[in-house]
Design a protein that fits this description.
Elements: H1 10-31, E1 35-39, E2 42-47, H2 51-60, E3 63-67, E4 70-75, H3 79-86, E5 98-104, E6 110-118, E7 122-127, H4 132-140, E8 149-152, E9 157-163, H5 167-174, E10 175-176, E11 186-192, E12 195-201, E13 210-216, H6 220-229, H7 239-248, H8 254-258, H9 282-291, E14 296-303, E15 312-315, E16 318-329, E17 334-342, E18 349-354, E19 357-364
Antiparallel strand pairs: 1-2, 3-9, 4-7, 4-8, 5-6, 6-7, 9-13, 10-11, 11-12, 12-13, 14-17, 14-19, 15-16, 15-18, 16-17, 18-19
Amino acid sequence: MTTTTEGETDEERADETATDADDELTELHAEYGATFIERGGKRVVAGYGRLERTHRAVRRGAGAIERGYGVLTVEGDDRLEFVDNAVSNRVPNSDGEGCYALLLGPQGKIETDLYVYNAGERLLLLTPPDRAEPLASEWRGKTFIQDVEISVATDAMSVFEVHGPQATEKIASVLTNAGTPDEHLTFVRGEIGDAGATVIRTDALCGEESYAVVCNKADAAEIFDTLLTRGMNAPPFGYETFETLTLEAGTPLFGTELREVVPNVLGLRNGLDFEKGCYVGQEIVSRIENRGRPSRRLVGLRCGAVPGSGAAVFDGDSSVGEVTRGVASPTLGEPIALALLEYGFEGDSVTVRVEGEEREASAETLPFVEGSDRSGRLPAYE
């Protein structure tokens, strides 16, 4: 630890800089009428008002959102081997490439999902916000003699995303010194405005073309303002709109569908590599894969009313599953939901219990809405 001539440590000065950057970004959100909620212990934007109009603007053009990720960096000569041995997918060897992966418990249930990007001398990991600190602590206890250094960078970095059928044009209109990446989960380094940024082609969680912009916290307000006001138009949107977009796209999320569920149940094949070496939970996942029949599967429901999380789903008098989340779809103009139903259930009509009443619902093939791209997490069953 070093000390400045004014008596402040470098760490204290960095904390002040991060706080100032947070305040500047919060003020920018407020100028657009943001309201805030907490997700995973992190404050994020719920919305900016006029949610249906904003939702349609993203579906028809492009919109920008600040994402509340937890951020880890992993450095050291053994970083690739260490992370690859822990996660369910193969970590890329090449700079500029990434993967979507899962961390499983001994019974094969998802403890967290994460994106792993190879950034040359380090790996950059994006996790649910409440999983970064616990994961770093757990991994530090497992390094032993390996050359691995794990750091939590959540407070030092910001992540924004642009979604919509015109997302590529939007990013191209503000990104300099690099072209937009073509393949999902690959990235380039360039500049947005006067600030350096890493731009990732993401896996289309909203069912539309999509990019993530990763930057230093100190540059966050400038980059977000550039995404909103320069080049092509891209209005801001918050997590309430993000949830309606992802549900329409058939995308399971960590907080509602993934946590403590075996990935085979969700048809989450893009997060699994069945050919790689052993990792915790692999035996369970492989056994279910080889048997070809998980206990449940994720389906879509069109409902007579918006059901809450955990609402029971019935086939006649028999319970066949439960809702994970429901919304009023702005695109379809009716309530829709995701539900985990018994794997062998093949019926088209069910009832859902909403506020103590049975409401008719129909089982639907996902996604509900076909956009300019397909979500990488869209359920796929063999």
